[in-house]
Input
Amino acid sequence: MRDLADKCWSLTEADIEALEIGSGILGTGGGGNPYIGKLRAREALRSGLELKILPIEALEDEAKVVPMGGIGAPLVSFERIKEGREGLRCLRALEERMGFTADAVGCEEIGGQNSMEPLVTAAMAGLPVVDGDGMGRAFPEMQMTTYAIYGHRSTPSVMCDPHGNAVIFDHAISEKWHETMARACVIAQGGASVLASAPMSGAFFKRHAIPHSYTQAIGLGRAVIEARRAHEDPIAAICAREKGRRMFSGKITDLKRHFRGGFNVGVAAIEGLEDCRGSQGEITIQNEFLIFRRDGEMQVCVPDLVVVLDLDSGLPITTEVLRYGQRVAVLALPCHELLRTPQALEVIGPGAFGFPDLVYRPMSEAA
Amino acid sequence: MRDLADKCWSLTEADIEALEIGSGILGTGGGGNPYIGKLRAREALRSGLELKILPIEALEDEAKVVPMGGIGAPLVSFERIKEGREGLRCLRALEERMGFTADAVGCEEIGGQNSMEPLVTAAMAGLPVVDGDGMGRAFPEMQMTTYAIYGHRSTPSVMCDPHGNAVIFDHAISEKWHETMARACVIAQGGASVLASAPMSGAFFKRHAIPHSYTQAIGLGRAVIEARRAHEDPIAAICAREKGRRMFSGKITDLKRHFRGGFNVGVAAIEGLEDCRGSQGEITIQNEFLIFRRDGEMQVCVPDLVVVLDLDSGLPITTEVLRYGQRVAVLALPCHELLRTPQALEVIGPGAFGFPDLVYRPMSEAA
Output
């Protein structure tokens, strides 16, 4: 399957800059700080590695794709830089444990730094990353991928930390148990490790991954960069491209944010500005921005994307960077249809985040 | 190495009864409730399995010995019965991961239920348990074995829970890291799992295990049973046999005990009775009884054994069974010399338990 390389395209530094912004937007505040991810990807590029993307259509049915991503709390990965080879150690240990050779790396989560993690590891291993991912955004837990939702068993998996520790989750009786054990373990490891899951076939990936996420994220980032360059409104550019809606403009007036069970959790209160003056916004956070309420009424919730942007620059703000006094715009972007099935909503709908009374109404229907 | 079987002796139900008491005494309150352990071992025996002990002298240098034990909090294992085949799943997964066949099972910890765990698993696998262990008592953490202290690397190890989850700690950069990750994970698994460590050679076991622990524990239990039968003082029998000292008699008047970080921790206050009237005893607990103070002054501390017995029956009381109003005797038994070296005291002396100012004075010297 080594001729996959012919079908790949390679990322440039400009692509990485665009991916930082695009994955930041799709990250809905989470997925790890994309700036840190960019630095790592750019460093890899400058050291001579090739960051290759394989079009999902070119993926062969029999190819073995290893899904990868960082695991932990964004807050930690923002403050503690990775050792750098965690992902490669995961990949090699997984290949050894299961007796196979990976053909490509899959992205677990296109949002935030987790868009970059697979690129760097794949580059070190001389492999491409397939143009797709398991979330089309960011979510806080591992069972929340379309891979897991549509039947992939992610164990055996390997988790490596910056110290050199390696743990194999050899068998988990469910995807949620995998998450529970790995979460406990990553906290013990310091809160920022990398995890590679059991390989899936190219056929499975093509059927159940959110397709074209890298193309989408890079295109989205480029649109923002171009709008800014042309002194146009980047927020309007994002909405036009993603069929999104601008929900609110305001100033952060209260921010409860803490670190619980390995997650960043909290609530941000936003006092309306401009045409929202007199209104009060509120965002519920668990690593990502989950729910946006206006004057107590729910406006957007998972799995649709709640995006927080700097009001002036149009650049995305992650949950750990959010602070009192920031002037922000809140956007809603519709999630991919693979996240909207009844099967998916059981795992990533509001009920799965502890809001059983909230009923998800797809943005597309409400519009 | 299958002819090891010739050199083994098999445990009877009477041996198991004696082991319950002896391992309870050596457990210094921890190691898991020995009564629960007894029930499992007896059940195994009655189902036709043979619980075999291999004399340590008969162990061949090249034999592969897999150390095993339950991991978790005694409180949990007392309330939630094991599924039963956790240990066997660990052993099989470890053999598969590392590509070897075990010749014998080693005991991590002779104290409490952990004396029984290896017996049941070994019986299921048709293997003997070597007459020795890694603690000569019970300790709360995994790096506190003579195996680890004297250089055995316990990873790769496998940990299995009652649900069917299996985790391989493939590489830990230190024994303490192994403990830290496994502890976090066992809490996520519900607090009572089984762990099998990387095999060691027979030569290593013979040199660094506490020898004859099963013989010792069973003999100790028998001495208590016989003294009780003859209406003699079982406490005196224990002291005579183990070169122990009776330190205190009294009534539990205050008991602070809670569950923190996967451990039972606490303090028990004892008001003196009999010849101790007017004195106040205090025991510090972390899964085991660690330190005994009389009127504020330290009398015994780890690694020497602080044993709490029912004042009338002479039977050992575990930390989770301890309760207000119990009339108890506190005994001190000297630990094995392998636990008293400077190398060992770094890992299992009072400093390792958060008491850097306490200086360990071996009982034998003080006597």
Summary: The longest helix of chain A spans residues 213-229. Residues 226 and 234 of chain A are 8 Å apart (CA to CA).
